[in-house]
Write a structure and sequence with these properties.
This protein has helices spanning about 10-60, 75-80; strands spanning about 70, 100-105, 110-115. It is α+β, with helices and mostly antiparallel strands. Helices cover about 45% and strands about 15% of the residues.
Length: about 130
C-alpha cells in the first residue's frame, strides 16, 4: 500500500492553523485601517483649523470688526482657505453644511474648535465602526 498522502487529521490541523492565522491577520489589518482613518481625520481637522486662522487674520486685516465667532466649511472653501470639496475620511462624504469652526478669544489669543454638523464625521475611534 502506498503511504505518500496526508491523513485527514493532518489536513484538518493545517486548515485550523491557517484559519487562526487568517483571523489574526484580518483583525490587525482592520485596526490599522481604523487608525489610519483617525490619523487622517486629525490631520484634516488641523488643516481646517489652519484655514480658519488664516480666515480670521484676513477678516481682521480687512475690516475693523472683531473676529468672527464661527466660520463654516463653506466660507473657508469659498475664500480659498481650504481645498474645495473636502471629504471626511471617516464617512467618505463631503462635510455637511453644519460643520464649522468655533472661534473664542482668551486674552490675546484665539482658540479654534471644529464642530461637526454630522456626528459621524467626528474624528473619534468610536465613530469608526
Amino acid at each position: 500500500m502506498n503511504k505518500k498522502g496526508f491523513t485527514l487529521a493532518e489536513l484538518l490541523g493545517v486548515i485550523v492553523i491557517i484559519g487562526i492565522l487568517a483571523i489574526i491577520a484580518v483583525s490587525v489589518i482592520d485596526k490599522n485601517v481604523k487608525d489610519g482613518k483617525v490619523r487622517t481625520c486629525k490631520t484634516q481637522e488641523t488643516n481646517i483649523i489652519e484655514g480658519a486662522k488664516s480666515y480670521v487674520t484676513d477678516v481682521l486685516a480687512n475690516t475693523s470688526n472683531a473676529a468672527p465667532t464661527q466660520v463654516t466649511i463653506g466660507q473657508l472653501e469659498a475664500g480659498g482657505f481650504i481645498e474645495s470639496d473636502l471629504k471626511s475620511p471617516i464617512t467618505g462624504n463631503k462635510y455637511s453644511s453644519g460643520t464649522k469652526v468655533l472661534i473664542s478669544k482668551s486674552g490675546d489669543s484665539y482658540n479654534f474648535t471644529v464642530q461637526y454638523g454630522d456626528a459621524k464625521e467626528n474624528c473619534s475611534e468610536e465613530e469608526i465602526g
